[in-house]
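The records we work with from here on pair a chain with its fold. These numbers are not coordinates but entries in a learned vocabulary of local backbone shapes. To see the layout at work, look at the sequence and tokens printed below.
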Amino acid sequence: MDEAQADRGRWLALGIVVMSVFMATLDSSIVNVALPVMRSDLGETASGIAWVVSSYLIAIAATILVFGRLGDLMGKSFVFRCGLSVFTFGSLLCGFTHTLFWLIVARVIQAVGAACTMATTQGIITQIFPPQERGRALGVSGAFVALGTLTGPALGGLIVSVARWEYIFWINVPVGIVVLLMSLKHLPRKEKAPGGKLDIPGAVLFFFAVVPLFISLGQVETAGSMDAMMLAGLGVSAAAFIAFVLVERRTQSPLLDLSLFKNRWFSISIVCGFISFLAMFCSNIVQPFYLQDVLLLSPAAAGLYMSIFPLVLTVVAPVSGYLSDKVGSELITVIGLTLMGAGLIGLSTLDTTPSYILMVLYIVLLALGNGMFQSPNTSLIMSTVPRDKLGIGGSVNALIRNLGMVSGIALSTALLFGSMSAFAGQRVTDVPGHGEAFVYGMRIVYITAAVICFAGVVITALRLIGRRGRAAAEVREQG
């Protein structure tokens, strides 16, 4: 096979991988806009139907490390194909359910398949692309992650407006079948896997560390930060996490190889990735309410403004990945987080009668910074992982992404309604009728997110200085 043909094969394989990523992340948000219709059809309450979304995210977070480890043991392409099959089957089942219980069961099946693909995607990309092209490839993947997550509500609204809600799930079936058939031909078929076994005790402890944490974070808005059940859930999560770390340190074949975190560049990059997704989802949860309930824009008009972020991100992420291959990732990540922080500060200045031109500029700035940061940071993470641990390295990165999303939603919601209540002098649980209070709370959310983002800038700047200093020292030693 000549180099040109091999290159085409790599990019075709990337197309297969990013389509699965797009479907998996899309299904984390596409359901939201259809929840009122689903609630009516199934005869459920609003709190009950919300489990259609929560169950999907929780199942992914609870299982993603397991499938990352299985990818290293059994082959990443094999686990990826199994996940794609399960995800497609789960999508089919979702459309045939007629009760909330069975819909949640089908969503969990769908999420298990999504976790398989998410856990192995970055490992496959790192495996098939040489270092000089890896940043660009991971940039394309990162763009599809963001695109799937952020365009879900708009696409879901379009589908629900012209067809039944079941088609939100069924649309995955033909796409999933085509991608699966293509993966059988174009992804690596045989992979050498090292010896070892799955760490069952670690998997169980990790399950009890993650599931109560997600459920508790989701209860902050309704139950309050001092609710006994929420605090108990956090206690169980903390205890299980401590036990998980102790078990992983002693077992010969751990679910999560803690030696990965001995590499400070891996640990720093993981922390920075968490910060970026937390900051991004602080904005993501506030913006729709601001556009529709404060500025009184129509859903269609609000959708146009919300489409700015994914459109900019789709263009910038591959370009930043390409630049990271040429000039290095560290400087680009510093610039990216700085622009994100500047965009968040700008958004914090908006009020009930904003300049729409400035609002668009701030959204573009936030998207530009995020697009510049994600691809190089992912490249840095995966470049520090040994080849036989690419599966678990990619799954850790995907887990941190999901934790950042959930933490951003929980933090922004708690800050928003807490600040609104303080401003209004009474408990506020909804946005309509509280425009001035919402703007005050929104400002607190954006400023807090910006401060967190600038803390990330300091960390990434220290990483830049440290890695350049080490490179200079190596050159001196060789000379």
Notes: The chain has a mean pLDDT of 81.
